[in-house]
Amino acid sequence: MQLYGYFRSSASYRVRIALALKGLDYDLQPVHLRRGEQQAPDYVARNPQGLVPALVHDEAVLTQSLAIMEYLDERFPEPALLPGTPADRAWVRALAQVVACDIHPINNLRVLQYLEKHLSLGADAQAAWARRWIEDGFAAMEAMLKKSDSRMGEHCFGDAPTLADVCLVPQIFNSQRFAVDMGQYSTLARIHENCMRLPAFKDQAPERQPDAE
């Protein structure tokens, strides 16, 4: 396996956690987003979106973090990242997609760069933009978890990490960059604390990556 990613990319962070939870070895191929390496012709030939992560396995090139993680779950079923019943799987996917589909896409690097270069928004305004959507999504997740507290344990679902936890932890890392007050989200903060006790989460933190700056 080869993982093309960037240490601070939350989508790459998700896939690193999933690989670690499943005990899978891979070769890291850093792609420096701030230097624009994701737009290099050889990388775009691999991933036409010019985004990270990309995972190469058995000659297949896989893109989009949620798709990659579900592929890993199908190819390497243990430990499972999704629960056993259709309703529980849908609920875990919904939590994961609040992050991966609603929060992250409008706060990632290319969006912030557009706000700066094309709309002339300064750093404070960009941070306010990011906080607005992170807080909106976190409030929804907090309410979802409290409403379905019978599903919760140490993690978003039961006592083992799922796709929801794998998406939540990198987003909380991003929230710290924008000064989001996690005191508003006691359930998310508790789950994050439990996750970060596990090597699969702790060792994949951005500051621990070989390409960290």
Please tell me about this protein's structure.
- By secondary structure, this protein is of the alpha+beta class.
- The chain folds into 2 domains: 2-79, 3-Layer(aba) Sandwich (Glutaredoxin); 86-200, Up-down Bundle (Glutathione S-transferase Yfyf (Class Pi), Chain A, domain 2), CATH 1.20.1050.
- 52% of the residues lie in helices and 8% in strands.
- The protein is built from 9 helices and 4 strands; from the N terminus they run βαβαββααααααα.
- The chain has helices at 10-21, 41-46, 65-75, 86-103, 109-117, 123-147, 163-177, 186-195, 199-202; strands spanning 2-5, 27-30, 54-57, 60-63.
- It has a 4-stranded mixed β-sheet, with helices on one face.
- The radius of gyration is 17 Å and the shape is globular.
- The two termini are 24 Å apart.
The global form is globular
Q: What is the CA–CA distance across the termini?
A: 24 Å
Q: Can you tell me the CATH architecture of the largest domain? A: Up-down Bundle
Largest sheet: 4 strands, mixed
Q: How many beta-strand elements?
A: 4
Using the coordinates above, name the CATH class of the largest domain: Mainly Alpha
Helix content: 40-55%
Radius of gyration: 17 Å
Count of the separate structural domains: 2
Low-confidence stretches: none
Strand content: 5-15%
Q: Mean of the pLDDT scores?
A: 96
Class derived from helix and strand content: alpha+beta
Please provide the ordered H/E string of secondary-structure elements: EHEHEEHHHHHHH
Number of helices: 9
Strand order of the largest sheet: 2-1-3-4
Instruction: Characterize the quaternary organization of these chains.
Output: single chain
CATH topology of the largest domain: Glutathione S-transferase Yfyf (Class Pi), Chain A, domain 2
